[in-house]
Structure prediction request, 92 residues.
Amino acid sequence: MTLRWIFNKQVVNGLANLRREWQDASVDSLTDIDGNVGLLLGDVCESIGLDPSEKDNVLGIILEAEIDDVLSQQAKIPADGLDRLAAYLQMQ
Prediction:
């Protein structure tokens, strides 16, 4: 087993898990969803297990701060609020 094989397996598993999470959270096909590229890149960094230094290098200081801000705002939404929002969007 080479280091490259281990890294590739980690990347493939991480990205597959990320795709499953997105599919579970979506009512539409993933090809029909408009998305935030910055959040997508942050999710990819998390899913492949980048350490903080690697994430800093990939995202840069500004994007990382913007992602942190978005995620902190999402954390303030009550859980039932997300359920109500999803139900509302499905009715549209």
User: Anything to note?
Assistant: Residues 52-75 form the longest helix (24 residues). The CA atoms of residues 54 and 60 lie 10 Å apart.
